[in-house]
Write a structure and sequence with these properties.
Elements (H helix, E strand, L loop, with lengths): L15 E5 L4 H11 L3 E6 L19 E5 L5 H13 L2 E4 L5 H5 L3 H7 L4 E6 L14 H7 L19 H26 L4 E5 H8 L1 H8 L19 E5 L5 E5 L3 H11 L14 H12 L4 H8 L6 E3 L10 H6 L2 E4 L2 E4 L23 H7 L13
Parallel strand pairs: 1-2, 1-4, 2-3, 4-5, 5-6
Antiparallel strand pairs: 7-8, 8-9, 10-11
Length: 380
C-alpha cells in the first residue's frame, strides 16, 4: 500500500476521486478532498500544467497522485472511463458540453459506474444565457452583488484576490455538494451530477446581507453599513510605520475596551450615534497614525478590544496564535496552510507534496486495478 493510500489519513480515507485537470476552483476542491484523506488521482493532460508555475510548488496538487492522459485519443477516453468505473467521485471544470464531446461526460461515466458522483465546477453553471461564455472570478462576483459591497464609497470596488468567487463560492460549494451526493449514493446506491456554479455559491454567501437589506438594516451601497467599512469601529487604519490595524469592536463592551485602550473614552456615545461616526473615524485614525503597528499590537494583546494587525502572506505563519495552533505547516521546503478543519478521531496532514504530472501512473494502475493506464489497448 502506498503512502497516499495508507489508512488513518483523514475522515475520507478509502474514498476515490478522479480529478480532470484544470485550474482554479476545481484543483482546490480536489485538494480539500485529498487533505481530508481521499485518494485523489489527478488526470493531467500532455504538455504540462495549466497554471504555468513549477508543478513542485503548486500546493493545490498536494496529497494527490497524477497520471497523464490524452483525452483527444480513444485510448485516453477509455483510461478515464476505467478510472471512473473504480471511483466514488469525479470532478471536472470544463465549459458545459466539453466533457460530453470528449466522451467522459456524466452519462458516459455513470454508465460504467451508477454510484459515481459527478461534480461539475463552472463559473456560470451548466445552463443559462452565459453558460457557454468565458469568465473569471471577478466577473462572477460582480454580477452577484458581492463585489459591489467592497471598497470605499466613491471609488471602484476592490477585488478580493480570487478568494471570494473561485474558492469560497466555487470550491467549497462543490465539496459540500459532492459530499452530500456521496452520502446519498452510499444510502441509495445511485450517484448523481452536482452542478456547482461560482455565481450560485457566491450569491448564497450573501444570504445574511439580503436578509438585512429586506429588514432595512443594510443600505444597497458600499461603505455605508456596519460590516462593509462604513462603520468606524469595523474597518482598517494606517499606523505610523505604514502598517495597518484591523478593528472589529462591534459590541458595546468590546467598543468600550477599544476606546479605553485608545484613550478615547469621550467618544463612548458615538457607538450608536451615526452622526458622530465621521468624528469617531477621524479621531481613531489620528490615534493609530501616532504609533507603529507593532506598538499597537502589543497594546491590544490579551484584550477583548477585537483589534488585530494586518499581516502579509509571509508574516501570517509567524503570528503567535497561528504558530501555536500549527495553522501553517512546512512540507518539502514550502510553507503552506495546514489542512482544515480538524478532526478528533481522524486527523489530517500534508502527506505528500504536489503531484508531478504522470509520476504515479504505475502505482495508480496497480492500486485501482486499472491496468490500461500502463498498457492501453491499441486502436483497432
Amino acid at each position: 500500500m502506498t503512502e497516499a493510500t495508507a489508512p488513518g489519513n483523514g475522515p475520507l480515507t478509502g474514498v476515490r476521486v478522479v480529478e480532470l485537470a484544470g485550474i482554479g476552483p476545481g484543483p482546490f476542491a480536489a485538494m480539500l478532498l485529498a487533505d481530508l484523506g481521499a485518494d485523489v488521482v489527478r488526470v493531467d493532460r500532455p504538455g504540462g500544467p495549466g497554471l504555468g508555475i513549477d508543478p513542485a510548488r503548486d500546493i493545490t496538487n498536494r496529497n494527490k497522485r497524477s497520471v497523464v492522459v490524452d483525452l483527444k485519443t480513444s485510448d485516453g477516453v477509455q483510461q478515464v472511463l476505467d478510472l471512473a468505473g473504480r471511483a466514488d467521485v469525479l470532478i471536472e471544470g470544463y465549459r458545459p458540453g466539453v466533457a460530453e464531446r470528449l466522451g467522459v461526460g456524466p452519462e458516459d461515466c455513470r454508465a460504467r459506474n451508477p454510484r459515481l458522483v459527478y461534480g461539475r465546477m463552472t463559473g456560470w453553471g451548466q445552463e443559462g444565457p452565459l453558460a457557454d461564455r468565458a469568465g473569471h472570478d471577478i466577473g462572477y462576483i460582480a454580477v452577484t452583488g458581492a463585489l459591489g459591497m467592497t471598497g470605499e464609497p466613491g471609488r471602484p470596488p476592490v477585488a478580493p484576490a480570487n478568494l471570494l468567487g473561485d474558492y469560497a463560492g466555487g470550491s467549497l460549494y462543490l465539496v459540500v455538494g459532492v459530499l452530500a451526493a456521496l452520502h446519498h449514493a452510499r444510502a441509495t446506491g445511485t450517484g448523481q451530477v452536482v452542478d456547482a456554479a461560482i455565481v450560485d455559491g457566491t450569491a448564497h454567501l450573501t444570504s445574511m446581507i439580503h436578509g438585512m437589506l429586506a429588514a432595512g438594516a443594510w443600505q444597497d451601497r458600499r461603505g455605508a453599513n456596519l460590516l462593509d467599512g462604513g462603520c468606524p469601529y469595523y474597518g482598517t487604519y494606517g499606523t505610523a510605520d505604514g502598517g495597518h490595524m484591523a478593528v472589529g469592536a462591534l459590541e458595546p463592551r468590546f467598543y468600550a475596551e477599544f476606546l479605553r485602550l485608545m484613550d478615547l473614552d469621550d467618544l463612548a456615545g458615538a457607538h450608536a450615534d451615526v452622526t458622530r461616526w465621521p468624528e469617531l473615524r477621524t479621531r481613531v485614525a489620528e490615534r493609530f497614525a501616532s504609533r507603529t503597528r507593532d506598538a499597537w499590537t502589543t497594546l491590544f494583546e490579551g484584550t477583548d478590544a477585537c483589534v488585530a494587525p494586518v499581516l502579509s502572506l509571509r508574516e501570517a505563519p509567524h503570528h503567535p496564535h497561528l504558530a501555536a495552533r500549527g495553522t501553517f505547516t512546512d512540507h518539502a521546503g514550502i510553507t503552506q496552510p495546514a489542512p482544515a478543519p480538524r478532526f478528533s478521531a481522524t486527523p489530517t496532514t500534508v502527506r505528500t507534496g504536489p503531484a508531478r504530472p504522470g509520476a504515479d501512473t504505475e502505482d495508480v494502475a496497480r492500486d485501482w486495478d486499472v491496468p490500461g493506464l500502463v498498457s492501453p489497448p491499441s486502436n483497432p
